[in-house]
Design a protein that fits this description.
The chain has two domains: 138 residues, no CATH class; 66 residues, no CATH class. 70% of the residues lie in helices and 0% in strands. It is built from 14 helices and no strands. It starts with a helix and ends with a helix.
């Protein structure tokens, strides 16, 4: 209780003084950019960098108070009713990318700019701006995203895409139960996509035993083997080698 009561104070910090002219200018600029749609993609990326800068200023100066709002989140909820995530992305680009990279965003696009910001946030003053800008210009968006993920995590990632299925309501419980059962067997840390792949691989392996299609069977077994932990891989290889000899 002592710690909690110490958080209360009769002398709260002074609120930032609002320069009404500057606040109105920044808020008007934000609304102009959000309403601005009929331009090319490159121009739009340039304006989004500008938008990120203005949003950071609004947060730092508490400009939302001029509109009688209670918080920055409430301000974003008005300007970004569908999702505030993009606003925070743009602010991250402004906060973490050096000026050179922000100027080049017209060439690389704001989505690549966000990936650049992840590396810049980690590296700080050591961020190799020229090298990463070159990669951003030369690589397709998905490949560049994988390059950044590999840099940050040290792991190679496979290309991916979202696939949609239309299921009847009566089918959903069966599919959900199958994925949950696979997760219990494979480990609850595995993704639902991974569990679905293993279910399909198991089905293909069983089906092709009867159809005698060794290519499909080998492909299914290879996928299973790839996801085995290291010690289980060694045990499997040892067993297969013994039986082959």
């Amino acid at each position: 209780m002592v710690g909690l009561t110490n958080l209360r104070t009769s002398n709260p910090p002074m609120l930032p003084k609002l320069n009404r002219k500057r606040v109105l200018f920044v808020l008007t600029k934000i609304d102009e950019i959000l309403a601005w749609e009929r331009k090319s993609e490159a121009e739009r990326d340039t304006r989004f960098v500008e938008l990120g800068r203005y949003l950071c200023e609004v947060r730092a100066g508490q400009y939302w108070r001029l509109e009688k709002l209670k918080s920055f989140d409430e301000f974003l909820a008005r300007r970004f009713p569908e999702s505030r995530r993009k606003a925070y992305y743009l602010m991250s680009i402004h906060e973490h990318l050096p000026p050179l990279a922000r100027r080049e965003l017209k060439e690389v696009g704001w989505t690549k700019g966000l990936e650049l910001a992840k590396v810049a946030r980690r590296d700080g003053q050591e961020f190799d701006c020229a090298t990463w800008l070159h990669k951003a210009r030369s690589l397709p968006k998905d490949q560049f995203k994988r390059e950044v993920e590999k840099e940050l995590t040290g792991r190679e990632t496979e290309p991916w895409e979202i696939i949609y299925f239309k299921l009847c309501k009566t089918q959903i419980p069966v599919v959900e139960q199958a994925i949950e059962t696979a997760a219990l067997m494979l480990g609850t840390d595995k993704s639902r996509g991974y569990c679905l792949e293993m279910i399909c691989a198991d089905f293909l392996a069983g089906a092709n035993l009867e159809n005698e299609d060794p290519t499909a069977l080998l492909q299914s077994m290879s996928r299973f083997f790839k996801f085995l932990p290291g010690d289980q891989r060694q045990a499997f290889l040892h067993e297969v080698t013994e039986k082959a000899s």
